[in-house]
Automatic annotation (TrEMBL):
It is found in: Secreted. The lineage of its organism: Eukaryota, Metazoa, Ecdysozoa, Arthropoda, Crustacea. It comes from Daphnia pulex (Water flea). The keyword Zinc applies. It catalyses: N-terminal L-glutaminyl-[peptide] = N-terminal 5-oxo-L-prolyl-[peptide] + NH4(+). The keyword Transferase applies. This is Glutaminyl-peptide cyclotransferase. Residues 114-338 form the Peptidase M28 domain. Belongs to the glutaminyl-peptide cyclotransferase family.
Length: 347
């Protein structure tokens, strides 16, 4: 009996020590996230990263996405496969989150499939860029959604292509922070936007990752969502004269950093347009989009969405003709610098 008791005490002591170790590990992890600093580029490095622009590459990338792509249609499946093929060709890990959900009558049950692509799945933390790849259902079936959100999809894919050699080096360095892209499905409402008829993919993935422990079988309650340093959500991009405002406190630090990137690029005459994109005003309020279920679960959010919405929003006029390539080029320069500085990529 005495020996058995000692074994029990030893086991409890071991479990206690493991618990303390796990807590210290998670505390260090959370501190690294909250205290993360960008590595600012000097002028020569800014010129190099901005000089990676290739709008012909962007044009070739966006064209296959510029089709109606309503959930459940052949075009939707083709675009999904195209995005996956593009990212796989760059050596990224590609997976999907497939599920079914009820939609309003007469649309019924639909199958949705988020696309999750990760530069280095072994890295503990992620800088996440996200957008949606579905387009809105309309009766005539002609809505393309160039800004909403074919262009954001193509911007992300093109960024991965532009930075491919540098990102490959980052992956080989075993950095603790990697780059992850999420292409959400089912952002658009089938009937009227509400909490049940919208952001189907984002709601499902946020729930799924919240219930998925990371590391596996840990005792401190951390999950896949805790791996996300920041979600940068892109939406309604590509038309002339976009304005971004900071309205989410958790991502304001990185909004200000983005504004600083724009100022540095503009000061070096590396941007083509004269419109100030990042506005200094903090505008408390809210725009419902794919970030909501993640924000509700305490994921820091940087929401890059044109405010006010483009004039062609949810009309058949949201097609390639509305796109301004100088604006897109400037947005991509800012985004490239942001990614390079955040991930501390060696350039």
């Amino acid at each position: 009996m005495l020996v058995h008791t000692n074994k029990m005490i030893s086991l409890k002591g071991l479990l206690f020590l493991i618990s303390l170790f796990n807590q210290s590990q998670s505390q260090a992890w959370f501190h690294a996230k909250s205290s993360h600093q960008a590595n600012l580029l000097n002028l020569d490095q800014l010129k190099y990263v901005s000089g990676l622009s290739d709008m012909q590459r962007f044009d070739v990338t966006v064209d296959p996405i510029l089709v109606p792509r309503v959930v459940g249609t052949p075009n939707h499946a083709r675009v999904r496969q195209y995005i996956m093929d593009q990212m796989q060709s760059l050596g990224w890990d590609v997976g999907t989150d497939k599920f079914t959900a009820d939609t309003p009558r007469p649309h019924g049950k639909k199958t949705f499939e988020n696309i999750i692509t990760t530069l280095d799945s072994n890295a503990q933390r992620r800088l996440v860029l996200a957008c949606h790849y579905d387009s809105k259902y309309t009766r005539d079936g002609n809505f393309i959604g160039a800004t909403d959100s074919a262009v954001p999809c193509a911007m992300m894919i093109t960024l991965a292509k532009d930075l491919a050699p540098k990102l490959d080096q980052l992956k080989k360095s075993n950095s603790q922070v990697t780059l992850q892209f999420i292409f959400f499905d089912g952002e658009e409402a089938f009937k009227d936007w509400n909490s049940r008829d919208s952001i189907y993919g984002a709601r499902n993935l946020a729930r799924k990752w919240e219930s998925t422990s990371y590391p596996a079988q840990n005792r401190d309650g951390t999950n896949e969502l805790h791996r996300m340093d920041l979600m940068v959500l892109l939406d309604l991009l590509g038309a002339r004269n976009p304005n971004f405002y900071s309205y989410i406190t958790s991502g304001d630090r990185w909004f200000q950093h983005s504004a600083n990137i724009e100022q540095r690029l503009r000061g070096a005459n590396l941007l083509s347009t004269s419109n100030q994109i990042f506005r200094n005003d903090f505008a408390p309020g809210g725009i419902e989009d794919d970030h909501i279920p993640f924000m509700q679960r305490k994921v820091p959010i940087l929401h890059l969405i044109t405010t006010p919405f483009p004039d062609v929003w949810h009309t058949n006029g949201d097609n390639k003709s509305v796109l301004d390539y100088n604006t897109i080029d400037d947005l991509m320069k800012i985004l490239r610098v942001f990614v390079v500085e955040y991930l501390q990529v060696n350039v």
